[in-house]
């Protein structure tokens, strides 16, 4: 069976699947390397990697010489995804994939050292890469840390931050944050961020629920303080009603939910 190129792009000679796996094309057309994923990646990881890279290398985003390079890269991505999304072909590739051997003693030591690293070590490396702006590297590292230990809410919160920075699907960010609050129900920061993302997705009820949970956990959290405009006539009245303590209820802030969430987003991103 032969694998063709993406139909939206100019046609190129196809390469027989068997020849691709067994022949000299392997190093040039290793679909796992092209999609920047490990050989044991799940179907969900494969799909997510393809969409992320296809978005980055879509030819419509480039002009001139860069467009030609993008078209070539886009074709490679389409080829790689076409192979890996098929369970039978994926299994064949995994079974026949050449086993990489350390070329030197130093490489062997480095490989052994990598195996001895803990999930916390990988997470720390991910945080460092993220702080240095190396988003792709940070994402790969935190995914590996989560594979080693998926019960640390901090790992999932960091993954959400990485996905936010690279502009991923908001639903992927929400999934990471929901996992974080499931593991640590009193994680105020993640509740606040979920409120912001749910509001952006048009899910106001869920946004309000997470905002209320955050208030209950930490009423005096800096990001939950609604700033009162200078000279606002109702400022004193709001303060007085808060001190009345009727039925133990906290009065609604003067701004609406949408305004609160916009303010929170500004504080979270530093754009406020």
Tell me the series of helices and strands, N- to C-terminal.
EEHHHHHHHHHHHHHH
The assigned CATH architecture of the largest domain is: Alpha Horseshoe
**Spans of at least 5 consecutive residues with low confidence:** 1-28, 100-113, 234-255
* Count of discrete domains: 2
Distance between the terminal alpha carbons, to the nearest Å?
56 Å
Per CATH, the class of the largest domain reads Mainly Alpha
Adjacency order of strands in the biggest sheet: 1-2
CATH superfamily of the largest domain: Tetratricopeptide repeat domain
How many strands appear in the DSSP assignment? Answer: 2
Descriptive account of the structure:
With 272 residues, the chain is mainly α. The protein has two domains: 87 residues, Helix Hairpins (Orthogonal Bundle), CATH 1.10.287.110; 129 residues, Tetratricopeptide repeat domain (Serine Threonine Protein Phosphatase 5, Tetratricopeptide repeat). Helix content is 63%, strand content 1%. A two-stranded antiparallel sheet has the order 1-2. The radius of gyration is 24 Å and the shape is globular. The N terminus is likely disordered.
Key descriptive features of the protein:
2 domains, Helix Hairpins, disordered N terminus, two-stranded antiparallel sheet, 272 residues, single chain, 14 helices, Serine Threonine Protein Phosphatase 5, Tetratricopeptide repeat, 1% strand, mainly alpha
